Amino acid sequence: MSELVLYSHRGPAAVITMNRADKRNALSRALISALSDAFHRAADDPAARCVILTGAGPAFCAGMDLDELRGTLGADSEKVWDDAQKLSTLYHFIYTLPKPTIAAVNGAAVAGGAGLVTVCDLAVSIPEAKFGYPEVRRGLVAAMVMPHLLRHVGERMARWLLLTGELIDGITALRAGLINGITMPETLLETADGWAKSLAEGGPNALAGTKAILHCCSHQGMSVEELARGSAEPRLTDECRQGLNAFFDKKPAPWTTGERPA
C-alpha cells in the first residue's frame, strides 16, 4: 500500500492515517486512491471491527490539493469529472461501510477534510482543530459534502458554514453537532481506542444492520454522481480559475474588490 496512507491495528480497530504531513494531508489524486484502497482493505479485514481515520502531522486534512486542482484548469472536462467522481465515491464508501468509523481529528479539517469527518460515524477532536468549508472563497462549490453536513448540524448552521466559508474551532464544532467529543492531543487516540472498544461490544451483523437502516432513514436528494457533478462544474469556470489564482498569488479574489470576473 502507498506510504501516503499508513494502515495499522489498535485493539479492535484498523487505524488509517493520512501520511502527507508536508502538504497538510491535502487530498491529491494519489491520496484519494490510497484512502480508497485502505478503506476497502479495512472492509475485508477480519481483525478490524471498526476503523479510526486520522492524520499525520499538525493537520487532519486541509482539503483538496489546490495546487493539483489548479493544474486541471482549462483541461479536458472529463478529467475534472473523473477527479470529482472518485472523491464522491470515496465519501460514499466510507459513509456506507458496514463497520463503524471514527474520525480522530488531530488538527485542521477543512473543505474536503471536513467532508471526511462528516462521513465517519463518530468524530473526536482536539480543541484547537479548525473546521470549515471555504470553497466559495475560491469560486468552488462544496456540493458532495452538503448532505453529510446537513445531517449533523442542520440547515441553519450548514448555510452559515457553506456560504460564509468561515472556520470554527473544536468547541464550536461540538456544540453544533459536527463532532461527538473533545480531548487533548495527547489523549486523542486513547479516546478513539475507548470508543472502538465500545463499538466492538456490538455484534458485527447488528452494527452493519444498524448502519444500513440509518442510511435508509437518512434522506439524500441527489445521487453520488449528481453531487460529484455539482462539485466539478464550478472547476471549469473562469470564476474558479480567478479564485484559485488569487489564492496562490496571495491576493484578494476579484469579486471581493469590486471587479467583475472576466
Which terms would index this structure?
single chain; 262 residues; alpha/beta; 2-enoyl-CoA Hydratase, Chain A, domain 1; four-stranded mixed β-sheet; 10 strands; globular
Please work out how many helical segments DSSP would assign: 10
Instruction: Identify the CATH architecture.
Output: Alpha-Beta Complex
Q: Give the helix proportion (percent range).
A: 40-55%
Helix/sheet category:
alpha/beta
Number of domains: 1
| CATH structural fold name | 2-enoyl-CoA Hydratase, Chain A, domain 1
Largest sheet: 6 strands, mixed
Question: What Rg is obtained from the alpha carbons, in whole angstroms?
Answer: 18 Å
Through-space gap between termini: 44 Å
Strand order across the largest sheet: 1-2-3-5-7-10
H/E element order: EEHEEHHEEHEEHEHEHHHH
Q: How many strands in all?
A: 10
Shape: globular
Describe the structure.
This protein is an alpha/beta fold and 262 residues long. The protein has one domain (5-189, 200-212): 2-enoyl-CoA Hydratase, Chain A, domain 1. The chain is built from ten helices and ten strands. The chain has a six-stranded mixed beta sheet, sandwiched between helices. A four-stranded mixed beta sheet has the order 4-6-8-9. Helix 1 packs parallel to helix 3 (77-96) and helix 3 packs across helix 9 (224-232).
